[in-house]
Amino acid sequence: MLSNIKTIDELFSLWKQDRPNYNPFSNDGILVQEAWDKASPQIAFILKESNDDFVDIRGRAWGPGGNSPCFWRNLNIWKYVVTSLFRKESPSLEQAMVVKEEPLGDVAYVNLKKKAECKSTSYDPDISKYIEDDWSFLSRQIEIISPKFLFFCGSFRFVQAKMEFTSIGQGVFRVGDQIAVDFFHPSCRKGYNETFSLLKNRLGCLKLSS
Question: What is the largest CA-CA distance in the chain?
Answer without folding.
Answer: 48
